[in-house]
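User: Hey, quick favor. My workstation is busy. Could you predict this chain's structure for me?
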Amino acid sequence: MLKFISFGSGSSGNCYMLMTPTDGLLIDIGVGIRGLKKDFRDYGLSMVQVHHVLVTHDHADHIKSVGSFSKDYRVPVYATEKVHEGMMKNYCVQQKVPAEFKRVIEKGQPIQVGEFLVTPFAVPHDSSDNVGYMVEAEGVTFCIITDAGCVTDEMKSYISRANYLVIEANHDEEMLVNGPYPKFLKDRILSNTGHLSNRSCGLALVENMTERLRYVWLCHLSEENNHPELARKTVESVLRDFGIIVGVDVKMEVLKRNSPTGIYELV
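Assistant: No problem, here it is.
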């Protein structure tokens, strides 16, 4: 059985795990290693269960501990060439990925990573490069889209295939526009290479979800321009306007910014 846990989802650090009974991978490690070790212990997990690391992009809140984790546990790190280059140049990351554990992937090209069939796809964001991932294992299709400025046709095709989906609902547009951020930062977030708003997230679901979609997790909420209840209510409202009822047609939860979710069984 495939299982999923989020260890953190937000600007302070992002890290997600998928695991089968005999294999495991992390998607991004933007949280501290010490805290991650504690979370593993609290949930009866072991670091040696992690055999692979996937990286979405090279911003610090997604890669802070990738290099040290790879070095300490001798785990390969999969990312596009541009993301690998960005990680090497990022001054916020002291420990770099050792060359022997660097694995280069290409967008749109499926790759077998242990027991997981992984397909990276392009996601627009103002980083060196950025990908979402479709991961297939144990008869389940899992998709993650984070740090997305807009939803492209390619992204839509992956949403439509998912049984389980992690998707960004970063900000409430009114809170952002009326908030304290300087104009340049507001413009960046609202741009097509910034972040998805709650409403944009809801519309992406309405336009592309199918009967295959069982569960949605909203991720990467802004601490300053959003809050969990607002994100949930906004997305629920958009879905309801189109006749989709959360809890009946699809399940939905908001991932915590700074703490683990607990382990979900994906069946």
